[in-house]
Amino acid sequence: MSYAAKVLKVIKEADEPKGVSLHFVKAAIGEDESKKRFIAAALKKLVEDGKLSQVKGSFKLRKAALAPAKKKKAASGTTKKVTAKKKSPAKKKAPAKKTAAAK
Asked: What processes in GO biological process is this protein linked to (predicted)?
């Protein structure tokens, strides 16, 4: 699981109306000190991508990120099915009659 996915999961589960702090996210994921820079980088990227919003040092999920992507509806209306024309069986040509060879 990527750090971005972990961060999104933590923020979604926290369900805080004002968002969660960087400290809270790091503590919830529970990585050691050497890995915490990846969490900060993931948060920065998620803010740039528009999945999170940063307000006064706290991070919140954007409403657009919460809503599932809408599926495009298929074009409605009358659609004609293309039917393949059946080919009539080819007629066999009658073999040419051989004439008797003259002796």
From this structure: nucleosome assembly
Phi, psi of 55 (to 5 degrees): -130, 115
At a CB cut-off of 8 Å and minimum separation 6, what does 54 contact? 43, 47
What's the pTM value of the predicted model, to 2 decimals? 0.55
- What is the tens place of the pLDDT at every residue in 18-28? 888 888 888 88
Domains of the chain: 3-66 (1.10.10.10)
H or E element: which one contains 14?
A: helix 3-14
Work out the percent of the chain whose per-residue pLDDT is above 90.
1
DSSP 8-state code for residue 45: H
**H/E stretch holding 20:** strand 20-21
Q: How far apart are CA 28 and CA 50, in angstroms?
A: 22
Instruction: Please answer whether residues 39 and 1 qualify as being in contact, where contact means their C-beta atoms are separated by less than 8 angstroms.
Output: no
